[in-house]
Amino acid sequence: MGDFNAGLNTNVFLTVGITVFLGIIINLIYKTIFGSKKKETIKHETENNLDAPSEDVASETSMPENRVSGKSKKRAAWKGKTEFNHPWLLKNLKGHPGTVLLVDFSANGKFMAATCDDGSVILWDIRDLNQKEHKTLRVNIEFDHASHVAWSPDSKAFIIHTVRENNIVVYKIEKKKDGTIGSANAVITFDKVHAEDVIGFGISSNGKFMMSCSSKTDMVIWDLKGQQLDKLDTYLMSTHTAKISPCGRFVVATGFAPDVKLMEVCFTKTGEFKQVSKAFELTGHSSGIYDVAFDVDTSHIATISKDGTWKLYHTKIDYARGESPHVLETGKYTQSANPPHIALSPDAEVLAVSVDSSVEFYDTYTGDLYDTVENLYSGLITDMKFDASGKYLFVCGDRAVRILHNVCGYHTTIASCRRLLSSKQTSATVERLNKTIQDCKETLAKFGK
Could you give the C-alpha distances from 261 to 241, 256, 282, 393, in angstroms and in order? Predict the structure, then answer.
């Protein structure tokens, strides 16, 4: 009996020992497997938390993947400054990843092309500016971006001038059944001719030629197939801007010289290129010309000079018979270290001048400053254009195109109507003028004017 009990005790202790040993082994295996996974999980979560933006940064912008958080914070703060509110603001056309450089409107008034320094051209449907949302098409330029963009006269294509490759590319547009833009594809690339950056580019309204001009003195006249028609020397030492007149007859370049030379691009009756000949000059400034702008039919041209003044010229002349343009008005603008841009309303009654990030509106009849819209962007204004109606001014800069009401235009319309009423008019004309004055006053009241 004693031997049995001793054996039983031995078996019990052996069983207990084996159980404890197995428990220790299992516990070690558990800690080894699941403990390492827990560490990996903690490490992964810690890395994610380190990469994630803080709540206040995330509320301003969502960080793209693989972007350093410090850079994202700077970009987020900069982006916040792009928000802009003003009584004259109709809306912001946003969606551009970089700075909007320049805009151009299609001849049919339905679309706007905006080029951006991030390598994109965005085509906007602007048929109804009062719509909350606008349909867009983004066209990407691989490894490059466009400094200039221009619509073809038939609104079926747009043309760009690239920065790095420094050449002209034509894009053909395909439209959907509802009239919106469906796609845009590059179809022609012109040969590179300019060694320096291009500062002026455009296509004539009659579709007969295109123009490109560099920051030096070389201007090239092209046909629409990419063939050079002529190469000119602007004789400006350095060129600030170059444009084609809205009538499609003239090219002009401004720069170091205080005078502006308009040159006519001449064609035969059968449509063949003939020559580029000097037409007339705009004189009166005492220093170089920064920019030039036209009204709708080239009957008026505005210039702005380094001498601190702007001028409005009457240019509906027969220069072949010796007629010369004359100055209608001269005004002073606020000067800064950065060259200004100007835009002239289609009726030539309002001149907009960019001063850094602000826009000054001038009455061209009196030369007086009407008002200033300040701090539209955190950076500089890059371009301005009035729409065809003259009711709105499109302003380009950081990541958005801002559309401003041309409030000054209602003021100048009232003044024009009153000048007409001071002379003898028919009763119907008097009634119409008074109605226009009343409508403009009511509109101005909405803007606190």
Answer: 12, 12, 7, 27
CB of 391 closer than 8 Å to CB of 413? no
Nearest CA among 240, 249, 186, 184 for reference residue 213: 240
Question: How far is residue 338 from each of residues 306, 335, 341, 376, measured CA to CA in Å?
Answer: 10, 8, 10, 16
Task: Give the CA distances from residue 417 to residues 211, 352, 399, 422, in Å, rounded to whole numbers and listed in that order.
Answer: 39, 21, 39, 9
* Cβ-Cβ contacts under 8 Å for 447 (sequence gap 6 or more): 87, 88, 405, 407
Length of the chain: 449
53: burial class by Cβ within 10 Å (0-12, 13-18, 19+)? middle
pTM across the whole model: 0.81
How far is the C-alpha of 241 from the C-alpha of 303, rounded, in Å?
11
Nearest-5° Cα angle at 337, 332 to 341: 60
Task: Compute how many other C-beta atoms are within 10 angstroms of the C-beta atom of residue 306.
Answer: 17
CB atoms near residue 259 (< 10 Å): 14
pLDDT tens-digit map of 218-253: 999 999 999 999 999 998 888 999 999 999 999 999
Integer angstrom CA distances of residue 346 from 295, 297, 343, 387, 424: 5, 8, 9, 8, 26
Contact (Cβ atoms closer than 8 angstroms) between residue 218 and residue 197: no
Q: Which of 156, 226, 236, 153 lies closest to 199, judged by CA?
A: 236
Instruction: Please determine, for residue 371, whether its predicted confidence score (pLDDT) is greater than 60.
Output: yes
Q: Label residue 176 exposed, middle or buried (CB < 10 Å: 0-12, 13-18, 19+).
A: exposed
Could you tell me the two tokens for 415?
Answer: 């003044």
- Phi, psi dihedrals of residue 207, rounded to the nearest 5°: 75, 15
pLDDT in tens, 383-410: 999 999 999 999 999 999 999 999 999 9
User: What are the tokens at 322?
Assistant: 């010796």
End-to-end CA distance of the chain: give it in Å, rounded.
Answer: 119
H helices within 245-382, ranges in order?
A: none
Asked if 347 and 357 touch (Cβ cutoff 8 Å), the reply is: no
Pick left, alpha or beta for residue 356 (phi over 0 → left; psi -120 to 50 → alpha; otherwise beta): left
Residues 6+ apart with CB under 8 A from 430: 421
Q: How many other CB atoms are there within 10 angstroms of residue 117's CB atom?
A: 16
